[in-house]
């Protein structure tokens, strides 16, 4: 940020509470009860310093008490740590996983060829185990085949849903009987296990004419900063092409788009200079304390997640799906994460964060923050890997 802005950022960063720390790992020999006790002890320390603002937002969004909100944050942190280990334990039998808010733990789906030892190991680590027909590898292959089809505009997108053990195709509700839609669905079902859901509207991007976490401007478009990286920040690709100049909230020059991809992907990064610098902070806009960024561990499906953007500021919801193909008017974008969080024009590129872990940058969706809607983001780790960037963390 420019020096005139840093005073505000410095104060808010100092006021930030520690947020969630790292959850402990499960010993291979621990029983389910022992694992729960270990997790509970670690989680008590982790959630002791969660800000009142974040707890308040969790209470409002999910109808929880303060203690229930703390318990959910702790359980989600444990599930986030467990998910990659569960994938490794299940191996070829892995069929996806998700956080079950009612049970307060991760559910791991496996195919019937998972050995008893594998299922026992998952259970002892604290996960619920569900037997399903199709592996994650089979579902991903089916989704890839659907990606090769030409989709009409009334098909909003598709993704692998581990709970349904299927590729779910989303169709605009009043267009389901359309002949082009029905032809697409026939071809999609031939590609593998497919189910159909209806949605209220077709997705669109959330860029806006001169309207952002913190806003930035390129040409006559306003978007939002996603996350600071060393040397700049990441954001949405549809906000600007490589080489385009970027101005900050005060109109001063920041830098240029160094790389940008849209459609197919929706990510970009901007270099920072001219008196601006990066800080590992996501704005809470007075709804919650500004959030320090401590890493980018990926939250599981079902976990709570919040978004910061310059138009509608801070809103929260849950992760609904991963690896979704979104069929925008400009072309399909792949490997997106779907959420129940609302957004509006100008929020594009802004931060999706779970606890203190960066998740991704806002891409698009449908609806608004008055009547509700759904929003997709491009996962931040994919952006970092694509451009060889390092997330700026506290």
Record field, number of beta strands: 23
So how many helices?
8
The geometry reads as globular
Beta-strand proportion: 25-35%
Largest sheet: 6 strands, antiparallel, barrel
Please characterize this protein's 3D structure.
- There is one protein chain.
- The chain is of the alpha+beta class and 394 residues long.
- The chain has helices at 3-15, 32-47, 52-62, 66-90, 116-124, 136-147, 179-190, 380-387; strands at residues 94-100, 105-110, 128-131, 155-161, 166-172, 194-199, 204-205, 208-209, 215-218, 221-224, 227-229, 232-235, 245-247, 253-261, 267-271, 281-282, 291-292, 304-309, 313-328, 331-339, 351-354, 357-368, 372-379.
- Among the domains are: 17-50 and 65-131, no CATH class; 136-202, 2-Layer Sandwich (GMP Synthetase, Chain A, domain 3), CATH 3.30.300.
- The strands form five sheets. It has a six-stranded antiparallel beta barrel with strand order 18-19-20-23-22-21.
- Helix 2 crosses helix 4 and helix 3 (52-62) crosses helix 4.
- The longest helix is centred in the first third of the chain and has 25 residues, at 66-90.
- 51% of the residues are buried.
């Amino acid at each position: 940020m420019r020096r005139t802005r840093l005073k505000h950022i410095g104060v808010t960063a100092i006021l930030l509470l520690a947020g969630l720390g790292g959850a402990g790992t499960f010993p291979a020999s621990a029983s389910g009860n022992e694992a729960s006790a270990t997790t509970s002890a670690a989680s008590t320390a982790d959630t002791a310093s969660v800000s009142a603002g974040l707890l308040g937002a969790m209470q409002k969004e999910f109808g929880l008490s303060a203690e229930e909100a703390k318990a959910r944050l702790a359980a989600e942190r444990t599930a986030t740590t467990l998910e990659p280990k569960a994938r490794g334990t299940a191996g070829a039998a892995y069929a996806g996983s998700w956080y079950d808010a009612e049970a307060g733990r991760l559910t791991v789906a496996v195919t019937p060829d998972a050995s008893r030892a594998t299922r026992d190991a998952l259970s002892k680590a604290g996960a619920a185990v569900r037997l399903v027909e199709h592996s994650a590898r089979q579902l991903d292959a089916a989704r890839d085949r659907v990606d090769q089809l030409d989709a009409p505009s009334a098909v909003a997108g598709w993704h692998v849903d581990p709970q349904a053990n299927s590729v779910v195709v989303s169709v605009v509700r009043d267009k389901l009987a359309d002949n082009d839609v029905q032809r697409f669905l026939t071809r999609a079902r031939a590609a593998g296990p497919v189910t159909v859901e209806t949605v209220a509207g077709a997705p669109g991007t959330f860029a806006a004419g001169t309207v952002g976490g913190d806003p930035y401007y390129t040409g006559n478009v306003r978007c939002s900063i996603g996350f600071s990286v060393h040397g700049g920040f990441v954001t949405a690709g549809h906000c600007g092409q490589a080489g385009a100049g970027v101005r900050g909230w005060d109109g001063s020059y920041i830098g240029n788009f160094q790389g940008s991809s849209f459609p197919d992907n929706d990510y970009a990064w901007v270099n920072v200079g001219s008196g601006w610098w990066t800080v590992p902070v996501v704005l809470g806009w007075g709804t919650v304390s500004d959030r320090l960024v401590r890493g980018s561990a990926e939250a599981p499906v079902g976990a709570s997640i919040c978004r910061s953007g310059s138009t509608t500021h801070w809103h929260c919801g849950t992760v609904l799906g991963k690896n979704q193909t979104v069929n925008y008017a400009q072309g399909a974008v792949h490997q997106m994460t779907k959420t129940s969080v609302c957004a509006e024009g100008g929020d594009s590129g802004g931060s999706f964060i779970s606890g203190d872990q960066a998740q991704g940058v806002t891409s698009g969706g449908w609806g608004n923050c008055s009547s509700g809607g759904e929003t997709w983001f491009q996962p931040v780790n994919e952006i970092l890997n694509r451009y060889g960037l390092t997330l700026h963390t506290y």
